[in-house]
Amino acid sequence: MSQSAAQRSLDLVVTSVATQLMAANAATSVQVSQEVLADLVAYLGVDVSFLRYNDHAIRASRLVAEWPVRPGVPDPDPLALVYFADADPVFAQSEHGKKPMVFRPEPATDDYQKRIEEGRAIPATSMAAAPLVSGDVTTGVLGFVKFGDREWSPEELNALEAIASLFAQVQARVQAEEQLRYLAEHDDLTGLHNRRALLAHLDARLAEGQPGPVSALFFDLDRLKAINDYLGHTAGDWFIRVLAERLRRGAEGSNLIARLGGDEFVVVPTRPMDAESAEALAYQLQSTLRERVSIDGEMLTRTVSIGVALGMPGQDTTSDLLRRADQAVLTAKNSGGNKVAVFTDDMSMRSEFRNDIELHLQSVIENGALLLHYLPEVDMRSGEILAAEALVRWQHPTRGLLSPESFIGVAESINLAGELGRWVMRSACAEFAGWQSRGVGGDIVLRLNVSPVQLVTDGFVESVAGIMAEFGLAHNSVCLEITESVVVQDIETTRITLAGLKEAGVQVAIDDFGTGYSALSHLKSLPVDTLKIDKGFVRELGSDPGDLAIVRAVIALAEAFGLELVAEGVETEAAALTLLRHGCHRAQGFLLSRPIPGAALESLLAKGRIPLQFSASGRL
To answer: Shortest CA distance to 295 belongs to which of 226, 248, 218?
Structure first.
């Protein structure tokens, strides 16, 4: 073949290689590279070809593709990974070489010949090696080996250089794809998998026919905000990175670990795991994460709440599993944090109920599905009705009549407590004024519960005074009840608000009194009219000496400060008689009356008293 014909033939080969490699991507690059090597081996009349990539981070050459594929590859394969520091001079030149190299059988290449003989069990060889170059960096090498000796023409070496350049482009493209895929599937801050990777993994694990059960451990750090507030978000990020690394070490193996964002992580054990084993793993990892972290000279630690849930392949979806794990971790956090909770069906029912409440509460306040019941406050000596406590109810279309315990907490969590409280106040005052206009209830007090949000809201005093004026209610005919814990949350704001309410002619009662005695030191400086003994101390009166001691102390306290005293939760005759014997005659509870609708209370008010179901003759 003439020189020009040989050149044209080489040009066609380069063009063919370019066409084949153009379609290669991260998923197909090894297979396509192997097919190209096979064609080149046949064209060049050589026996072996290989493609190797340089890993400069560890200073090594890594085998990517070869043709023909060696049968019975040794383990470990001496050609799979060759460290440049340990390499023979031939391999060593491929670390930074920039131009094609030719090696022929001679003493200078004895080490290389020995390595090839060990890897392929072949005799002396000759080789042409073209480096893969990207910019100023040698990224790999493309090699062709002939058993025995072979001459390489300048035209062939030029063609090999061009082909190596094409392989370098594929290598760069594949690395870019892999980097994009890594970034798409990993969290920037910690290097753990992200939500996208987690969802894809769980989708595959929960597919029909896969082994199960599949467990998920949902981690939520308790009060990371304190670190962010105290040391800044940079310190918070460092704390998360340290904990992520501890989680990675603690859950080592084939477990998938993902960061969902913020301070939330998920661990998915790769092997099927029952609830007991998953819970044990959760406790083990919780212990690992509890170790202190050094940040800016501070030794800090945070507890972690963990929710554990299981899913069955072919039955449960990824969203089912993660929702259960999320419900479990919320249960752990709501129990005070630093807990491990395993998902139960009861959690699901509570979560479904709460979601129902949260989604519909706003519209319920607006569309009239709320109503009021009233719990009478009675003089246990005579049955006379002294006051009535307004209690909101929700007439739910499918769940029936809901008590405030079902939705007040939700209202507070979604910032609807103020709006709900205003509805209760306006509605109760309007109904109260209606009774008085019809000649009943003129001597009783309307008691209204006030949330902590309402108490610290600007303009609250003016709002209450305005509603009383709107419905023409007399001074001291309305009493607002606040819980004992609210009194000390923000004592200065509370003191100002209560003083304003007192000036507006509103009475104030401390509800659930005795649960902590936290308000004792403030009683003398707060304009309080009434103490209400918490029902927890009243239910067992007559049988529990400890409860009696607390109740007697509260009674003495009320007398010392000149305050009205009301006992809540009177449900037994023994409790009623015990209270009477010790000087507390105002009470409310199921023994006296259950909460009743406004119309029923109006009828009772017209009668003036409630028939007592017990004899009060035993009082002192």
So the answer is: 226
Q: How many CB atoms lie within 10 A of CB 136?
A: 7
- Break the chain into its structural domains and give their ranges: 3-184, 195-343, 376-391+417-612
CB 95 within 8 Å of CB 60: no
Query: Which residues, other chains included, contact 524 with Cβ-Cβ below 8 Å and sequence gap of 6+?
Result: 561
Report the CATH number of the 195-343 domain.
3.30.70.270
Q: Which fold has domain 376-391+417-612?
A: TIM Barrel (3.20.20)
Supply the DSSP string of 510-574, one letter for each residue: EEEETSS-TTGGGGGGS---EEEE-GGGTTTTTT-HHHHHHHHHHHHHHHHHT-EEEE----SHH
Assess whether pLDDT exceeds 50 at residue 619: no
Beta carbons of 538 and 505 less than 8 angstroms apart: no
Query: Is the previous residue joined to 76 through a cis bond, with omega within 30 degrees of 0?
Result: yes
CA distance linking residue 443 with residue 464, whole number of Å: 20
For 580, half-sphere exposure in the C-beta direction (CA atoms, 13 angstrom radius) is 20
For residue 309, count other CB atoms closer than 10 A to its CB: 28
**CATH homologous superfamily of domain 3-184?**
GAF domain (3.30.450.40)
3-class SS of residue 501: helix
Half-sphere exposure (Cβ direction) of 152: Cα atoms closer than 13 Å: 23
**Per-residue model confidence as pLDDT tens digits over 166-213:** 999 999 999 988 888 888 899 889 889 999 999 999 999 999 999 989
**How far is Cα 68 from Cα 138, in angstroms, rounded to an integer?**
25
- pLDDT of 110 strictly over 60: no
